[in-house]
Design goal:
Blueprint: H1 10-20, H2 54-71, E1 79-81, H3 89-99, E2 119-121, H4 130-141, E3 150-152, H5 160-183, E4 191-193, E5 208-210, E6 213-214, H6 223-235, E7 243-245, H7 257-260
Parallel strand pairs: 1-2, 2-3, 4-7
Antiparallel strand pairs: 5-6
Length: 261
């Protein structure tokens, strides 16, 4: 607790940020992830309210602590909440690099990226632009693997086109396993439930508990996804799927209903 310590200098705050961040002040090794350097810190919060730059320093320290916990694969960290945190694009790009499960530590074969973080909240960071998120797609197109599914960007400088890409990515990640099961004629895929549920209020609900009994996905199904479903059924022999539920899927038109019938 350093609350009200007006004697702290900028250099001391920089040193503190390094100590609580990835690598624990020893540096991040050749890979840049910090996983090859055992951290000296297990600190989860530093209170610097009332210091010279208390609010901005508090936010920076929180980001550094989050980055350290991501870099060491802390299983308790499944959500990174940087809402109204003064994060910039460089901060987010660094985080995305750590979240790529294909990332490797100093050339070793074993991947050292993060397998636990599934949600990233970046709301109310107006300095963030498309360049913060683009590395996610660049890495995935090059074979990168992410556990990350949900990204929230209200109040940022990310444009509508990028937000549409993020939504499409989320839908494909959630529904893709269904289509894969249909193509493989999975015996457990008996009921495909792509209906909208009143119980789902924000984003997509978990995809399924069992393949044969999928949960609602909050009406995010579109004609594009139904078209992919039709293609999967047309190109792969499936003898197990019995029921397709699109009830209250507001974004689905009659475009592919004839093919499904």
């Amino acid at each position: 607790n350093l609350q009200g310590n007006l004697s702290m200098t900028a250099a001391q705050m920089d040193r503190l940020a390094r100590l609580v961040g990835p690598g624990g002040g020893r540096g991040r090794g050749h890979c840049g992830l910090g996983c090859c350097r055992k951290t000296m810190s297990s600190v989860e919060r530093v209170n610097v309210d009332g210091t010279q730059n208390g609010e901005s320093d508090q936010a920076r320290l929180m980001r550094q602590i989050d980055l350290r916990r991501v870099s060491v694969q802390d299983p308790d960290v499944v959500l990174i909440d940087w809402a109204n945190n003064r994060a910039d694009s460089a901060d987010v790009r660094e985080l995305i690099g750590m979240l790529d499960r294909r990332s490797r530590c100093c050339g070793v074969r074993q991947p050292r990226g993060n397998s636990f973080v599934t949600e990233l909240v970046l709301n109310q960071n107006p300095e963030l632009g498309n360049d913060a998120i683009e590395p996610l797609f660049t890495r995935e197109s090059a074979g990168g693997v992410f556990a990350l599914e949900q990204i929230r960007l209200d109040g940022t400088g990310v444009d509508a086109e990028m937000k549409d890409r993020i939504l499409a990515r989320k839908i494909n990640r959630r529904l893709g396993p269904h289509l894969d099961a249909i193509k493989a004629n999975d015996k457990n895929m008996v009921t495909l439930d792509w209906s909208k549920s009143a119980d789902d209020v924000d984003g997509l609900a978990p995809t399924m508990s069992k393949l044969g009994h999928t949960t609602s996905i909050n009406g995010e199904v579109t004609d594009d996804m139904v078209g992919k479903l039709v293609k999967a059924l047309q190109e792969h022999q499936n003898t197990n799927l019995r029921t397709i539920n699109l009830t209250n899927s507001d974004n689905v038109t009659d475009e592919h209903m004839g093919a499904l019938g």
